[in-house]
Design goal:
Elements lengths: L7 E3 L2 H9 L2 H11 L10 H14 L4 H10 L12 H10 L3 H17 L9 H4 L4 E9 L16 E3 L2 E7 L5 E7 L6 H9 L6 E5 L6 H9 L3 E5 L6 E12 L2 E10 L8 E10 L2 E7 L9 H7 L5 H12 L10 H29 L8 H28 L18 E3 L24 E3 L6 H8 L1
Parallel strand pairs: 2-6, 3-13, 6-7
Antiparallel strand pairs: 1-12, 2-4, 4-5, 7-11, 8-9, 9-10, 10-11
Helix pairs in contact: 1-12, 2-6, 3-12, 5-12, 6-12
Length: about 450
């Protein structure tokens, strides 16, 4: 008799992943790799990572409230540390964000190995030919609230930094993330740090910003591949037409071209794929020169999936509360950013596993609906475990064989119907553009800001 599929989702999978992989051994290994002059303190490395991931899950009103709950043991998600809030803020000021970045990379490497590529299942044939398929893009963080004395007389909106990430289309996780405290820093130079972390034979999707000979030279240096939207500023010299056919009612052409002038960067030999139908035109460039490795139709079908990384940034900011920063210290901002990325990857793995058990595509489950239920279930589960430990400590001989199955409780599971994605209405509202959005400034460029950040970091 076939086993009946469950219609419930395990809400404790995220807690299991965090407790399984965020260990003192992982933190010590990460610290040993990036350590320069820092040393261990009462706020240990593992406790610091646990605290910031708990901040992401619980979303307290202020860090002072979270620290009080941690010190008094009222909140089981937070590690119980008998230290003053000043010790915590000093630890966040002195510890370089490279440690949190290394913890994020090690955690991601562990969960990526444990989950198969279930997202964007239509691209399964492409996944088989490359080590990974990732989308590359950047995003700026939300503005700083005007609480710093440094910003009292600053009229422009002040941004604390910018992100640049690589989103794994198959596994649905943030493969790598780079935080820069300078929100005005160029996106293309920051991409060098991200591409350097990618595995060999990774296929990278990018927008028009990356349509340059320098970017393809960077991919070639790291033995990676790319598919980017063409921009007209990049000059192309056609060498050979590989193919021309009718496709989806339009003309599809596949050319071998020479891109770039060669003045500052060597000219690159690329494939120029163009689809035209009437006044519509869609053009991409790729350094995958073999049509058998990546067909022209597959390259065109790949590019719309680049928008998945925009959904990743939305989930980080809106669902995981990264739009609200708890500190203006750049090191603390980086800690919150990487902690949010760790929780995000755990959430996406849990979403993938739940969808597989339900027989659904992972995209049919809404992170915005699933995460609040996970946060509540994690809180209740750890409270229940804490109560059980106290009860057994006070009554050691009483019922030692009794096992309390907390996972069987209703709050530990959710009905799949309550977390399904709802189809959007066909009616769309056009977002009104506010001219004030043009007037922003990086915290590094505020008068005295560089000196202020130098003292903190």
């Amino acid at each position: 008799m076939a086993r009946r599929r469950t219609t419930d989702i395990d809400l404790l999978r995220v807690v299991d992943l965090l407790h399984e992989h965020i260990t003192p051994a992982l933190c010590r290994a990460a610290f040993g790799r990036v350590r320069t002059t820092e040393r261990q303190r009462r706020w240990t490395l593992n406790a610091l990572v646990q605290f910031w991931t708990a901040v992401i899950v619980r979303a307290p009103k202020a860090l002072s409230q979270a620290l009080a709950d941690s010190r008094e043991g009222r909140e089981p998600l937070f590690p119980k540390i008998q230290a003053t809030p000043e010790a915590f803020f000093q630890r966040c000021r002195d510890l370089r964000p490279a440690f949190f970045a290394e913890v994020f990379q090690r955690f991601t490497a562990r969960v990526v190995d444990a989950v198969p590529p279930r997202y964007a299942a239509d691209l399964a044939p492409v996944y088989a030919r490359f080590a990974a398929v990732v989308a590359l893009d950047g995003s700026r963080l939300a503005a700083i609230a005007r609480r710093l004395k440094l910003l009292w007389h600053e009229r422009a909106v002040v941004l604390p930094g910018a992100l640049l990430g690589a989103y794994d289309l198959g596994r649905g996780v943030c493969r790598t993330l780079h935080f820069d405290p300078d929100a005005a820093a160029g996106e293309l130079p920051r991409a060098r740090a991200v591409v350097a972390t990618l595995a060999r034979d990774t296929l990278v999707l990018g927008d028009r910003l990356y349509a340059s000979a320098a970017f393809f030279e960077l991919l070639h240096a790291h033995q990676c591949w790319g598919v980017v939207r063409r921009q007209r500023q990049l000059g192309l010299r056609k060498l050979q037409r590989l193919r021309k056919r009718r496709f989806l009612g339009g003309d599809l052409e596949d050319w071998l071209v020479r891109a770039g002038s060669g003045a500052t960067t060597p000219a690159q030999t690329l494939r120029y794929i163009r689809w035209r139908q009437g006044g519509q035109r869609f053009e991409v460039l790729t350094n995958v020169l073999s049509p058998t490795q990546l067909a022209a139709e597959e390259a065109l079908a790949l590019y719309p999936f680049r928008w998945s990384i925009e959904r990743m940034f939305f989930d980080l900011k809106e669902v995981l509360n990264l739009n609200r920063l708890y500190a203006a210290n750049p090191n603390a901002v980086a800690m919150q950013v990487y902690a949010a990325a760790i929780v995000y990857n755990a959430l996406r793995v849990a979403q993938s596993d739940a969808a597989d058990q339900l027989g659904l595509a992972p995209e049919e489950i809404s992170p915005a609906k699933l995460f609040p239920k996970i946060a509540v279930a994690s809180f209740l589960y750890l409270h229940a475990q804490d109560w059980e430990r106290q009860w057994r400590r006070r009554h050691p001989p009483a019922h030692p064989h009794v096992i309390i199955r907390w996972r069987a409780h209703r709050w530990a599971r959710a009905d799949a119907a309550t977390v399904r994605v709802e189809r959007r209405s066909d009616l769309r509202r056009r977002r009104r553009f506010c001219s004030a959005r043009r007037h922003w400034k990086s915290l590094l460029h505020v008068r005295g800001g560089r000196r202020f950040l130098a003292k903190l970091s």
